[in-house]
Specification:
723 residues, alpha+beta, six-stranded mixed beta sheet, five-stranded mixed beta sheet, 21 strands, 42% helix, elongated, disordered C terminus
């Protein structure tokens, strides 16, 4: 396959290997198998392409696979009228030209036998081994008779799970879809559109993530021609006109000659070529720039031997030509998550034409075109294949210590996809989430405080980082530190940030529906949605913003109403704390503000009153240390309680009003409130509140945490006054 994708219907013949005549192959295929001493003519092109990448490959297994495929498909025809065997032959040729190894080509020849013929997986396993059997099974579709409308999404789920164990499954599927798209013209228009939409939403993003640019670009053009025929026709006309106009003097060819001359004088061995843009690329440039220049229809490709030569070429270009600095990108030092490596720059030629330049080694070019297919057999038995398993004790979603490239056959995005799909048993949820996930075409890497890394889609927030690191435990997240500074959960992370999600010790806390507005990863969205569905009452409390619960604007009449009386009655109770001492005054300690159902104890203080403390209050330890005898305290029937809460937040306008509104929305009365002076942009608010029912305390704390800028709300633990 040529480096650039084939343009559908384009009148221009590209240089490189000519397109194989599948009708001729079909006639050859009808002749059936030939003698054992030579390969059938029908797979001669496959053998030639395969030997170009793997000179020592054993072709006998391809011979046997072809014989089985041809005999099992004999008599079957494609909708185009060609013998069916032409399809697995064409798919195998695509993979052979990209450099796939023998096992992949064998499975490619057989990829439809189990689905469309009487051949069974056991037969494939017996004749060709476990690896080939696994690949064939991975690309075999599920039956509609068994799965109904869910057959397509469940087939893709099955394929993705199989790809997680062997990435060659998806390589075969991509080549299979490419040939089907090439021959889609015989289908009804509505079926063409349906297949093109799935190709656009699922297969093209997968090809991009696996780095198989040669397949991705041609699929893009084929989809473009079907879904946007008018734009495609216009782009085709623009390219044809530009080709005719530059037949005599191509500005890119002129700049390429100048670049080659400069590199020869510098003693740098390099190949310089003009690389035409495919249709979709030209269309995007036209939308971005409006009127196209002669140099916009292609880019220069410079191929060298070593990594260091790439930077030497860059130095010469920036010295001898005027560089366009804004166009420079270094994907060698910082490769893309799909293995892509290259230097990108742009220079101004002698006539003022701007030429984009790609600089890479020959190996980088092979990987850029074929992606994971260029890795050969990543699962060879020589023990050199990297392990795909995370280290023992690794957190859910954690990346290997060396990042995305630690195992190129199991990239981080694929591991995350396999993780979240387990939480999406519903086919519709899986299908919708898969398309949304694949639409995020750029990734960032953030660092954990323990030295590990997390791979996240661009635009991910602290919510996504929390669920990627802690899984369902992130339900208790209350904020984060980003690069050492406190941040809200909605904070969008950048590439290279260090993030530390902060989890509350209060297990009663949980996510708010607002978190869904900040979650970009399927893992986070599925987990949050699941929690909200399982806690509908908590959801109502969390979802009810202050405006919803308390009406528009603050309500000072509710927030500032006077406190209810707290004096003891004849039963020896105040609020709902009870001691078995008639006519005893009982007070709740201001240092820890106990409320039901806290475990409490009491101590007799001056005047004979009993002060009630939470068991974990530091005052309890001090009182016991000096020999004070505790008094048994229980909670009575009265539900009212008083509590002191401390809200930690970032300073911002209207923060006090928003917090007061949230408190009023929970039907709590503010007895007193203090605000400490800001320190390092952080503000501490302390509220003493009267609640009509202690059971409402967890939801009140959640409502306060949901106020923008608030990163923690806790019960007060300040020193008590002298007793």
């Amino acid at each position: 396959m040529s480096a650039e994708a084939t343009n559908p219907g384009a009148p221009i013949r590209r240089r490189g290997r000519p397109r194989i005549d599948l009708r001729r192959l079909g006639r050859v295929a009808l002749l059936g198998p030939v003698s054992r001493d030579r390969l059938p003519d029908a797979i001669g092109h496959v053998a030639e392409a395969h030997r170009a990448h793997h000179p020592d490959a054993d072709l006998s297994v391809l011979h046997r696979a072809y014989v089985l495929a041809e005999s099992s498909h004999r008599g079957q025809m494609r909708k185009s009228g060609e013998p069916y065997i032409t399809h697995p032959l064409a798919v195998t040729l695509i993979l052979a030209e990209l450099g796939a190894e023998t096992t992949t080509l064998t499975a490619s020849l057989l990829h439809d036998t189990v689905e469309d013929t009487e051949v069974t997986l056991d037969q494939v396993r017996e004749q060709f081994g476990e690896e080939v059997c696994y690949l064939v099974d991975g690309v075999t579709k599920l039956e509609k008779v068994d799965y109904g409308a869910a057959a397509e999404p469940e087939t893709f789920r099955k394929m993705l799970v199989a790809t997680g164990d062997d990435v060659r499954v998806m390589s075969i599927k991509l080549a299979d879809r490419l040939h089907n798209m090439r021959t889609l013209g015989v289908m009804r228009p509505e079926k063409q559109a349906r297949i093109a939409h799935v190709t656009r939403d699922v297969l093209i993003p997968l090809a991009e993530r696996l780095g198989v640019q040669a397949l991705k670009t041609e699929l893009e053009d084929l989809v473009f021609a079907i879904l946007h025929p008018e734009e495609y026709a216009h782009t085709r006309a623009v390219i044809s006109a530009a080709t005719a106009a530059t037949a005599a003097a191509d500005p890119l060819a002129t700049i390429a000659d100048n670049v080659a001359s400069v590199l020869r004088e510098a003693g740098i061995t390099a190949e310089v070529a003009v690389r035409p843009r495919h249709f979709v690329s030209v269309h995007r440039v036209r939308i971005k720039r409006g009127e196209l220049r002669g140099s916009d229809f292609g880019r220069l490709l410079v191929l060298v031997g070593e990594d260091a030569d790439c930077y030497a070429v860059l130095g010469e270009l920036h010295t001898c030509f005027t560089p366009v600095i804004s166009e420079f990108k270094d994907f060698i030092a910082s490769p893309k998550f799909n293995l892509y490596q290259s230097l990108h720059t742009a220079v101004v030629g002698p006539d003022g034409e701007v030429a984009e330049v790609l600089i890479r080694t020959h190996r980088m070019h092979k990987v850029a075109e074929a992606g994971v297919i260029a890795l050969g057999n990543p699962y060879a038995a020589d023990g050199t294949a990297p392990s795909a398993e995370p280290a023992a004790g690794a957190a859910p979603g954690a990346e290997p210590a060396d990042g995305e490239r630690a195992d190129p056959t199991r990239p981080g995005w694929l591991s995350r996809l396999l993780q979240w799909q387990q939480s999406a048993p519903d086919p519709d949820t899986f299908w919708t989430t898969l398309r949304a996930d694949l639409a995020q075409d750029r990734e960032i890497t953030v660092f954990r405080t323990d030295g590990g890394t997390l791979g996240l889609p661009a635009g991910a927030s602290c919510v996504d980082a929390a669920y990627a690191q802690y899984g369902d435990a992130a339900h208790n997240c209350i904020g984060a530190r980003v690069n050492g500074r406190l941040a809200t959960l909605s904070t969008v992370l950048g590439d290279g940030d260090t993030v530390q999600p902060l989890l509350a010790e209060d297990a009663a806390s949980g996510p708010s529906p607002d978190w869904l507005d900040h979650a970009r990863t399927p893992t986070a969205r599925i987990a949050i949605t699941g929690w909200l569905d399982a806690h509908p009452q908590d959801t109502e409390t969390a979802a009810g913003s202050p405006a919803d619960a308390a009406g528009p604007g603050p309500q000072p009449d509710r927030a500032a109403r006077p406190a209810r009386a707290g004096s003891a009655g004849t039963a020896g109770r105040t609020v709902s704390a009870v001691v078995e001492r008639p006519d005893t005054t009982v007070r709740l300690a201001g240092c820890c503000t106990p409320v039901p159902p806290d475990e409490v104890t009491g101590f007799t203080v001056r005047g004979g009153a009993v002060t009630v403390h939470r068991l974990e209050c530091p005052v309890v330890t001090r009182m016991e240390a000096v020999g004070r005898v505790p008094v048994v305290v229980t909670w009575g029937d009265a539900a009212e309680c008083r509590v002191t809460l401390v809200a930690e937040s970032f300073g911002r306008p209207r923060l006090l009003a928003d917090l007061t509104e949230a408190i009023a929305g929970a039907d709590a009365a503010v007895i007193s409130a203090t605000v400490e002076p800001p320190s390092e942009q952080r503000v501490r608010h302390t509220y003493t509140l009267q609640l009509p029912d202690a059971a409402g305390l967890p939801s009140l704390m959640r409502a306060m945490r949901d106020v923008p800028g608030v990163y923690d709300v806790s019960r007060a633990q300040h020193p008590a006054a002298a007793l």
